[in-house]
Amino acid sequence: MKGTLKVIVAEARNLKDEDLVGKSDPYVKLILDENNIQTTQTKKNNLNPVYNEQFSFNVDGQKKLEIKVYDKDTVGDDDLIGEEKIKLSDISSKKYVDTWVKLTKGKLGFRSKGEVHLILEFIN
């Protein structure tokens, strides 16, 4: 599969709070592969952040887009709030997808960690 994937990270809601003091400072990381990673701005003290940020990826054989939401920490590593993967074949067959992606965490992925609103468009 080859083409351009446009992604709008519109907003997130009901994110799990990972901070002991205050609220999480979330940002969204979009990963097509190890060489194609893009990140939103960090939103301070917000469990329902609005981003409205657009990204573009050149797709050349990749199969999925990983969505990871982190809590930015001033000390130590950032905490993973939740994640999900989207099959690119699901997007390319429809060309345009406007969806809320449910985030999970852990191997079994049962626990909800919030949602991210994405608008995705695949252009051949």
From TrEMBL:
Keywords of the record: Calcium, Metal-binding
Short name of one Pfam family: C2
GO CC annotations on file: membrane
InterPro entries registered for this protein in UniProt: C2_dom, C2_domain_sf
Family matches, as SUPFAM superfamilies: C2 domain (Calcium/lipid-binding domain, CaLB) (SSF49562)
GO molecular function, one term: calcium ion binding
Domain C2: 1-101
Identification of the protein by name: 6453_t:CDS:1
Organism expressing this protein natively: Funneliformis mosseae
